[in-house]
Amino acid sequence: APAPPPARHLFSDPAEVEALRGNLLAWYDRCKRDLPWRALAATEPDANRRGYAVWVSEIMLQQTQVATVIDYYNRWMQKWPTLQALAQASLEEVNELWAGLGYYSRGKRLQQAARKVVSELAGRMPRTAEDLQKLLPGVGRYTAGAIASISYGQATGVVDGNVIRVLCRLRCIGANSSSPAVIDHLWDMANVLVDSSRPGDFNQALMELGATVCVPKAPLCGECPVKQHCQAWRRKLFGKPLPVPDVEDCGVGDCPLCPPATEPWDSSLGVTNFPRKAAKKPPRVMRTATCVLERRGCHGAPEYLIVQRPNSGLLAGLWEFPSLPLAQDLQEETERKELADHLQAWMGQPVAAKSLQFIGEVIHIFSHIHQTYVVYSLHLDGDMTLDPALSPSRWVTEDEFHASAVSTAMKKV
User: Which pTM was predicted?
Assistant: First the structure.
């Protein structure tokens, strides 16, 4: 069995835990940001609607910054103020509102879960973290804990990226913060720390601290309400305090939470020595040929052909200009030929490669893909018949294009 973590990595003093809670909550009451989902969670008397409001915000906030989410959240709650309203919406409507927010499967799973609540749970949100995670598709351990603590007052901790950073610095946890052993320990710590009288506020305070003060680079340690409890700050301020063994000394044994001996404390980094993460895999490099097919509409305005992507995989169910993945290092002449052959299926007539006008290249970075779109255009003089056996397709004006469920990448194109 692995050795238990030394006391330095734990919150084992009840007096310290109580002091940390009080300092953090007092800071949160003074400094918390005014966010729409917090206002709803604090004022909505209906428990079901309160849980739904927090749930939507937590799903949107996954991998997405608060500033980006606010507008999407307000429009979502205005359009679908209840679970029942969302359950009646179409996936196309969900995708249209979600367009540009990224990680599109989140919206799809949110709608699927809303339909399950309505059809299988009599429209009642589960009230505990355990049931939320077990019964709702797309709701993991963190989201379940956030909903249960903020909406229903369950004294359960949460661990997200901000909390990981705060806890790793508070207790000088320098092992790979994405490893299962470290994550399990952080969850144990979060559950020890959570304030049973104000669990939702405490969890939001811990996340708020990581988002606004204990940030990844250049943290504002002077403004931190819990710096006196932070071992990384003490290490930076005092070097090697005598009452507490040096964090590097801990790594001499089998401590699963200390930095590896090959990566000792870097005094120039200070508290940003923590957390430590495994090196990211480089993104996959992809090239895609994309053609903007344009015709003159019945009212004289130009119209563009968009086609729907498959219902699974990257950007599932969204609309795009006809596109074709390309092998790397193709000559431009070969790319044109392959795209022309691909377009013939949509147009039902031969397409000459030389008729495709090269416009330029658009680079878009997905979380795991470095995508280059090689953009061509083709103006059509006559009409064309689209094969109904192919993927769904339609002609749209520019305004209709921007109102459709299209990705940010296609808007760049």
Answer: 0.81
